[in-house]
Amino acid sequence: MIEAKHIYKSFDDKEVLHDISTVFEDGKTNLIIGQSGAGKTVLMRTLVGLLTPTKGDVLYDGRNFYGMSKKEQIMMRREMGMIFQGAALFDSLTVLENVRFPLDMFSNMTYRERNTRAMECLERVNLKGAESKYPGEISGGMQKRVAIARAVVMNPKYLFCDEPNSGLDPKTSLVIDDLLSGITKEYNTTTIINTHDMNSVMGIGENIIFIADGRKEWQGNKDTVISSHNKKLNDLVFASDLFKKVKEVELEGERKE
User: Fold this and answer.
1) Could you tell me the CA-to-CA distances from 173 to 106, 164, 168 in Å, in that order?
2) Is the separation of the CB atoms in 122 and 95 below 8 Å?
3) What pLDDT digit, counting tens, does each position of 242-254 carry?
4) Which tens digit of pLDDT belongs to each residue from 75-128?
5) Domain extent for 245
6) Going by C-beta distance under 8 Å and a sequence separation of 6 or more, which residues neighbour residue 251?
């Protein structure tokens, strides 16, 4: 698991994160949600070490990341997988070469072993047969699946996903959600997903952290988010007509009880 303990982050005189403490659990899809500018991305970048907190600690299974030496942090990052918002594939490499890239860089496996492992991951995301194509030859949804395969090719203990459904249609988004949820369970990964997709919240939100104005406002799961009385959370979750109707039914049930 990953623990954030009293995280503060400021840029010059502007405080972006204020005293955030939470736990991201093993084997669960942990979602960070909030309006644009709430601090979601800054929190995720602080968790992975791309930004250093102004104050506070990040613990990976009890190991304080910001108490480590640079060498120890580099070794720690080998236990992490990252899926970027835009997939961030190498256009000049084939799908197979993109997935194999972390193994080529960091593993001691033979070429055949690296190829075999990369193909296993492509099969896991249902992309067998696409290994010889280039990113420009496949759809956005397929590119995201390649990014997922690349992120898990080194069997990471911790998986970070920055807006994995950004720019995708609802049907493809469901495919990505199912993949991330399945991989999380299969490998008992600590998966952290930064998202504003309410379908993801209701579909795979096993542990949800809601941030507003740089502060943790609420924490719960997909079963309790509907019944929350936090106004800021309700404004985010029930922005769509569909979820407004769900809330109306919920409140009507409460009045009858």
Assistant:
1) 31, 8, 6
2) yes
3) 555 555 555 566 5
4) 898 899 988 877 789 999 999 999 999 999 988 999 999 999 999 999 999 999
5) 2-79+158-170+179-256
6) none
For residue 203, the one-letter residue type is G
Residue pair 195/164 in contact by the 8 Å Cβ criterion: yes
- Arithmetic mean of pLDDT, 223-252: 73
- Alpha helix (H) residue ranges in 56-189: 70-77, 95-106, 111-124, 140-152, 170-187
Tell me how many domains the chain contains.
Answer: 2
Residue 204 confidence class, pLDDT cut points 50, 70, 90: very high
Say yes or no: 162 and 55 in one domain: yes
Q: Which of 55-59, 184-188, 214-218, 242-246 has the lowest mean pLDDT?
A: 242-246
Radius of gyration of the CA atoms of the chain, in A = 19
β-pairing verdict for 2-11 and 14-24: antiparallel
- Using a 10 angstrom Cβ sphere, with 0-12 exposed, 13-18 middle and 19 or more buried, the burial of residue 11 is exposed
Q: At 73, which amino acid appears? A: Q
Read off the pLDDT of residues 13-49 as tens digits, 9 standing for 90 and up: 899 999 999 999 999 999 999 988 899 999 999 999 9
Task: Give residue 185's identity as a one-letter amino acid code.
Answer: K
